[in-house]
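Me: Here is a favour to ask of a fellow structure person. Could you put it straight underneath, so I can go through it closely?

Assistant:
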Amino acid sequence: IEMIPYLQPIAGIHLHSNLMAELEPNSDISYIYIFTAVALFILIIACINFMNLSTARASKRSREVGMRKVSGATREQLMRQFLFESLVISFFCLVIAFVIVEALLPVFGNLTGIDLDPYFHQPITFVIMILLGLFVGIFSGAYPSFILSAFQPIRAMKGALYQGMKKSILRNLLVLLQFTISIVMLVSTWFIYKQMEYVKYKKLGFDQENLVIIPLKSERIKEQGAMLKNEFEQLGSVKSISLTASVPGEGLSGKGFSPEGVDSKSPWILFMVICDHNFIDVFNMKIKEGRQLSRDYGTDSMAMVINEALVRKLGWEDPIGKKIYDFGQGDSIQRYYTVVGVVEDFHYQSLHDAIEPSVIMLNRRDPDFLAIRLNPGDPAEGIRQLQEKWEEVETAFPFEYFFMKEEYEDQYRSEQKMAELFITFTILAIFIACLGLFGLVLFSISQRTKEIGIRKILGASVSGIMYRLSVEFGRWILIASVIAWPVSYLVVDRWLESFVYRIEIFDYSWIFIVSALIALVIAQVTISYHAYRAAMKNPVDAVKWE
């Protein structure tokens, strides 16, 4: 494997790099793109609501338009008027949004772990907000201003626009788009939750419970590692302890080796777990063949335990006793390690990465960590005992530790935050979509008041009228579901590609159906309120309507 050095900007590491032994678990620039897209979707849904409601109530302003045109107003003047009204509403909402964001910044910071306050108050933020207000005002007001200004004066004065506006394909298509976006977000959120649940419960090849890691941060403490280990072993809360150069979640170092029987002039880069004899016991790893490294064998200083991934890659049927040569040594001093055991594959990195061919070998340098397996019971008592013993032995450096389970879960911190934010955004998107549907249903039913009254006079039941009104809008939700399913599949599959170990989408195909049903139920609840009120009206009053 050819190693090619390259440079990368430090500022680009957090979002654009995912190399071995990074300073901390990084995020991903794709998440920025995803949340930007989600914010735009929610904004589009809100704009669609404005278009829908503006055009739906256009008949209420028909006489106003007719009077203005009769008084000499041109279509361009009317378009400017309605567009200006839209801009005024947009900027009024912008001020309200600014106040809300200012109040919720601490809550958002707690949710994401990011302090956005310094960035929010920069001048560029205000410029962007003003531009956004202009865009929203023009985008949401352009179509309504075009429709309203096109009314013919005579028809407008007569109020003859009602009939033509009772059924608007465009408004229905806009509702379709709203619920398509909402269902896509609902399905995506559900799959994110399922993947994070899979990550949480997947077997990692080692036991994380009651496993405490103490970093040895200075050279002096590393030299005292063996002494600290002996002292900690005397504590009643400690079951076993190991000195190691690396722990899961912190990454592994690699080195060039040449396995027996492999004809290659280039090295095989194998990941190394450099530790003492107790490592496999402390981490509760499972030996599949052979044995683990032991003090009972003096030759184990030149022995290795390899993982199943390396066995598969080499194609060894009987790996015990095979030799792995230290690549680059001269023939006269060729150093080799003997394979004495095979350990079950273990995840030393996150589930984003495949399990690499790895070897476990004994320490040849000072360790970086103390890995301590506590006895079952009260972990707080175990930590207290460890701290007391540490402070007896080491006074210059404070006692620091972390639990292996928490450290490993930190690798999915960005995904967990993404799931939480997605849930919030999905609820918001569905709520906004329902607001638009609520207003549209109100307008549609008000236009059909006479029709409903006549149907009741002719013997139609309340449930029959409600069913008829619900089906009209419900079919658009079903169509939105059919459109949303393939889009959701592509979005979810693209996100899951970042995980080598992932759930299978078709194993959870029920999520698509249930999400559609949830959207349908929410929409029907929104529709039913107005449908019931309309169906319960006195038919005589309904016929007199208008």
